[in-house]
Structures are given as C-alpha cells and as structure tokens.
Amino acid sequence: MKRMTSIPVLLVLILSLAACGSGDKSSADQPADTAKTDTSANDNTSDNNDTKPSEGDKEATGANAKDNEKDSPAATANPMDLSQYYTSDKPIEKESDKSHILWKQGSVTLKASLGKPNEQEKPETSQVVSSLTVDQKDHHIEVKLDPRPYNVPMAALSADESYLALSAEYHETSTLVIIDLKNGTYSTLNQQLEKNGKNRLEILPTFSWSPQGNVLAFSYGLISELSWGLYDADQMKLTFMPPAEGVQSLISTSYVMWSKDGQTVSYISENPSDQMKLYRYGIADASTVKVRDLTREEFDKFLKFSSYILNAS
C-alpha cells in the first residue's frame, strides 16, 4: 500500500515539474518581445533627440540666455533711474572767460585761446579761437581748423583716454573734431558723414562716448532736422540709427547717455516742439526703439550728462 501511494505522488511531482518547465519557457520568450518594444521606444527617443539641442547648442543657448539676462536690465530699466547711465569716474575741471577756455579730465588738458576776429570774420562773431591745443602727458597736439571756430562749447574724453571729441562752433553751424590721442592726429566727423552720403549737415550738437570700446553716439543734421548715429573711432565706421516710428527728424538733441553695460544708448530729443522725449536703442539690435515722454521736471534731472564747457563769451 505504501508503494502504491507513492506512485501517484511521483506522478503529481512530475506533472508539476512539467508545468514549471512550460512556465519557464514562456518567460524565456518574453524578453524577445520586450526587446522589440524597447527598440520601438528607442526609435521614438531618437526622433526626439533630433529636435533636442546638442551639447554645443546647449552651451550656445546658455550663453545667449546669459547675454539676454545681461542685456535685459539695460533694456528694461526705468529711464528715470539715473544710476543706470554711464558717467566717467574721472572728475572734470573746467573754466572759461572771454580770453580762454580750459578743460581737464584724466591725463588730458584742452586749452583754447580766444581773440578778436579779423576783417573777414566780422561781423558774424565778436571772438574767434585763436589757438587750440590738447596735451596728454608728453604729447602736445595743435589743432588747426580753417576757418577758425568761434567757440569750443563741448568736449568728451573716451573711457580709455584714447580719443577726445570736441565741438567747434561757427555761426549757426558746428564741426565735430575727433582727436586720436594715441598718434596725435585729428579729423572731423563731418568729413566721415559726407563720405557716407550725409551732405545736409549744419550741426553735430551732442555726443557721448561708450563705457567700453571707443564708440561715439551723436546727433547730426540740419538745425531742427536732426538724426542719430554711432561712430566707432577704432574702426572708423559709422552706424545710422533708424528713426522712431512716426519721427522723421528731431528739432534738437540735448543729451546722449549710454547704459553702464554699453548695451543701450539713449537720446533725449525734442519732437514735436517743446516736447522732450527719451529714445532708447539696443546696440545689438537697433530696429526697435523705446520712447518715453519727459516732463520738464524730469528733463531737468539729466543736466549732469551734459558735455558742455561753461563759457562766458
């Protein structure tokens, strides 16, 4: 009896083992199906990777994002936050009377002697600049302009003291002189503008150097018909700023200011009559200009950005 009982038990064990073997085979087949599914998933991932940036693109995107972050404060800052605008930390000394003009900043000294006009220069003026010199350490530069100007009302020194810009004033006209302090040469921006087809010139009344590089922002044109531009003194390259929407020309330009990071330049100009507005351009893309109306009280706050030399004539 014991023997007969053990046989069914053995049969049960054998059947159980066979069933387990069958289950193992089913499980062994499963990875192949799973591998097929993974291949399909990998194909989709590959397609997605085609739309994702490469490591180099990621770096470029990151750099652009940083640039945008850097540009953003200057582009979006409140125009009335005067701390955003660049001013040199080098103090300016200036004095003037009926006989001379003296202007000093950093290592540069500008001197102009004023005298009486000759018969040909009368009656348009009661004084002329009889001599004009610029000194920087051991360099002495004599600036000789023909005809002789009546006054030197404005001057601005570049951030690295490589260039001096000054305005030579005549009867209802002016010339903007750029002095290269590195080699002692000078030229007029008027000549550069005329070479670029800007022949309708009377005045270049307002200008300002960038905080980095040697780029001069300025206004130019006819009296009451002004435009704006940039001049890269190192490259001798002009850039003309597009007019703001609905503005063909400006009646006057009082101030030109750069942001501290050099990413924007702002012009305060009159348009229409007796209405002062601030026009802000991005240097990287000047196609869009932001405009803000200024009250008389707001306009007066920008006086410290003037490059005028006080002159009692």
UniProtKB/TrEMBL annotation:
Signal peptide extent: 1-21
Record-linked InterPro entries: 6-blade_b-propeller_TolB-like
Ranges for region Disordered: 22-83
Keywords: Signal
Transmembrane segments: none
Amino acid composition bias (Basic and acidic residues), ranges on this chain: 49-72
SUPFAM superfamilies listed in its UniProt record: Tricorn protease N-terminal domain
Low complexity: bias regions: 37-48
Protein known as: Protein TolB
Highest classification ranks of the organism: Bacteria, Bacillati, Bacillota, Bacilli, Bacillales
